[in-house]
Amino acid sequence: MTGQVRTVDGRVAGRRGQATRQKLLDCLSEMLSSSPYRDVKVIDVARKAGTSPATFYQYFPDVEGAVLEIAEQMATEGGQLTALLEGRSWVGKAGWTTAQELVDGFLEFWRKNDAILRVVDLGAAEGDKRFYKLRMKILNSVNNSLADSVAELQSKGKVDKDVNPAAVAGSLVAMLAAVASHQKGFQTWGVKQAELKPNLALLVYLGVTGKKPTK
Amino acid sequence: MTGQVRTVDGRVAGRRGQATRQKLLDCLSEMLSSSPYRDVKVIDVARKAGTSPATFYQYFPDVEGAVLEIAEQMATEGGQLTALLEGRSWVGKAGWTTAQELVDGFLEFWRKNDAILRVVDLGAAEGDKRFYKLRMKILNSVNNSLADSVAELQSKGKVDKDVNPAAVAGSLVAMLAAVASHQKGFQTWGVKQAELKPNLALLVYLGVTGKKPTK
DNA sequence: ACTTGTCCTGTCATGCCGTCAGCTTACCGA
DNA sequence: TCGGTAAGCTGACGGCATGACAGGACAAGT
Q1: Which residues of chain A have pLDDT under 70?
Q2: pLDDT at A7
Q3: What domains are there in chain B, each with its CATH number?
Q4: Looking at the partner chain, which of B125, B175, B212 has a beta carbon nearest the beta carbon of A210?
Q5: For residues B80 and A102, what is the distance between their CA atoms, to the nearest angstrom?
Q6: pLDDT score for A3
Q7: Strand C contact at CB of residue A53, distance < 7 A
Q8: A11 CB and strand D closer than 7 A
Q9: Nucleotide whose C1' lies closest to the alpha carbon of residue B15
């Protein structure tokens, strides 16, 4: 699965090549954090990496191609998000803890990768299948786990029959992602970061179980 | 308040000028629906409008400036969203209807303006204050109404004291916006449009009132 | 030192950006 | 009817990013 890294013209990249390639990715990543996606130019990335634009095009077809690469790396890291839900209970006090830790872990992951996640989100919303699949890959682990939890509670009769587990799980995950993207925005509404988390956890808990948490 | 429309170099625009200006906006709007924001070029917009790039720059400082203009128009229309909540009740069956109609109206508005809203969302997430204010302007009406509703229920003791109305309202609105942006995405999770709405309404109702709806 | 294959860059054609001077068109008062 | 004035538009241009190529620099093994 770890296919050799190749240049655009088909050569296999050696140690040095991979290093510059990675440096370009790092610099691009950094630029995405500091300037609008639309204004990121190949020449700037190359300059920042202490190399020439031609070198950039040796490793990536275009900016978008490089972004996909970064996003791919992040997506595999994002698999860790599954751990936030694996084997967790949604019953009683434990359930409330699960909700809290899910929110915590999710926001943290988003905060760490916000620049690249913004671009992935945009690409997906614009209908680009590659970005779309990537977004799925990141969210799927959390989404599936949540949907399973809801379905299980439903089979035990603890959740109404007419609830669609996938729809609820997807909506909750979308909420987490959206809130994470606009964390700063909440400050203008007079909501502090610390207050936000428990309220988000409450919404998640309510959505999954259908009732108020026992704290 | 209806200040005269002016060109970049300060002249007041007459009938013909305003028509061209509007045509440029319309074409840009259309282009945003059909191609990625990053790839929208001034020259393409101008060609589509049957004019020259120089004309574009007579009315707008750059693409972003024109986008802001379109978004501004949309934001004022978005004031209608307030109507979805004004004077509505969150108690009993009426509450469930309120939730349903809110979801319906919100999704419809987003579907209609998805292209421009994507760009506004990106701009806001990237920290651009102008886009950020615009996003607020659109969401504020809904957000404030929701927050008020929660606060009112809270004062009557129907909602826990430790709930932060602004945080809950903001999160729910963010959820609605996010789900609307990625409506197509839910199909891949096997969720149909028609199934999505009631489940969203359920989450909204749960979030606002803290208990299951009586249908 | 020589060979081999990787790695980088100088350079170039192309195309978009953003600006300006200058031409055309519409309006208006005399 | 006739200028005069301001609005409206565009051709053309310097500047810069893009993307392709060929050839030179470099490291590693012999």
Answers
A1: 1-3, 13
A2: 77
A3: 1-61 (1.10.10.60), 74-209 (1.10.357.10)
A4: B212
A5: 35
A6: 56
A7: yes
A8: no
A9: D7
